[in-house]
Amino acid sequence: MERINDFTQGGMGKNILKLAVPLMLAQLVNVLYNIVDRMYIARIPETGTLALTGLGIVLPITLCISAFTQLFGSGGAPLCSIARGRGDIEEAEEIMGNSFVLLVISGIALTIIGMIVKRPILTLFGASSETIVFADAYAQIYLLGSLFVMIGLGMNPFINSQGFGRIGMMTVIIGAIINIALDPIFIFAFGLGVRGAALATVLAQGVSSLWVLRFLRSDKAIMRLRYSSLKLQWKHVKSITMLGISGFVMSITSSAVQIINNKMLQQFGGDMYVAAMIIINSIREIFSLPVFGLMQGAQPVLGFNYGAKAYDRVKKGIIFITIAGTVYTCTAVAITNLFPGFFIRIFTQDISVVNLTVPCLKLYFFGFYMMSFHFAGQTVFLSLGKSKKAAFFSMLRKIVIVIPMTLLLPRWFGSSGVFAAEPISNFVAGVACFTTMMLTVWREIDDKDKYQKKALEEETTR
Question: Which domain holds residue 285?
Fold first, then answer.
């Protein structure tokens, strides 16, 4: 039973946490080595703050690459869980193989296109004459290793979807250890600066991608990456893309938001405000990882039970992630409001930057707890294959709310308007997404559950 990882057995909360805890630890390590990158870069003698700002300019490019890993990786993994819940391993393997091919094709294409247009793109993203040097140096090396990034991040969800949370966790931990070990050597000992940080990241992701492929090709995997499953099939390409479009939109619009943030902060504040946003985004990553891990751990469990028609268990899983996510995010808001300076000083000791960032951090995190409702609703949509609803609410939050607010609010409130756009989107999107999920998907599951129970009672009475 342990070998099969049957999620219809045992408590839903226990099953979710069995996958979520390793994912949380993996994301903690992942965020840790991203933070270590930024900490080392910020401490480069004389040019640390400018180098950190340059790294922030590159962030939209990394988010764009992440968007395609979401499109084909996170789009395929929930479908694998549903197919496995139905007992159709062959179809699950076909989906995984098609996702892998799509990741490879898009990774090569992004590398070529990125290398051609990176310089003008970085200028468009808000790089100043002082920061363009650092942004270009980091982007060049990162783009050359983007295929490793996409395979490692894009295929790891297929390990988690089979119930091997610890193996999935090791994918990230191995890469993190290598990155953290190489950072000081490349950045300071070899004097490579931001190039060293990028090189360390790429090499670490290369090892992680090899680890993922080795496991998915081994006999230990329930669903294996076979050569026979690498032939693209339109029905799978369509379903993967349709479900993955939600994560794609979230990442690509996050990239757009970051670009607009940089441009508006440059216009209404300057480089220091861009640095403040980078610090706040880093703190947000720290506090978001447990709830991200919880929701990612829930996806294969909810999808498996939905495929197995265990509707009562699906409802219990939804209740669990909603309550757990809300309690956690409320705690996070309280902590960031009580100790803002502590978290900001992790990234900079410059007192002027610290004083500037504190009120911005408090404003940005106001309403953070409402993200739990948006995450819960999106998790349910993705887990059960409701691609249209997942895509709609991804676009609602970023395109309809955040981007217009980021462009408009600074004209009345200055740089504070940029930081206020996030909490506004959290409230509106959180309420809209969760309410829609309850009125549609929950109602559908509840009706099926009642029908099942009624049919069982009638059969028992006979």
Answer: 14-450
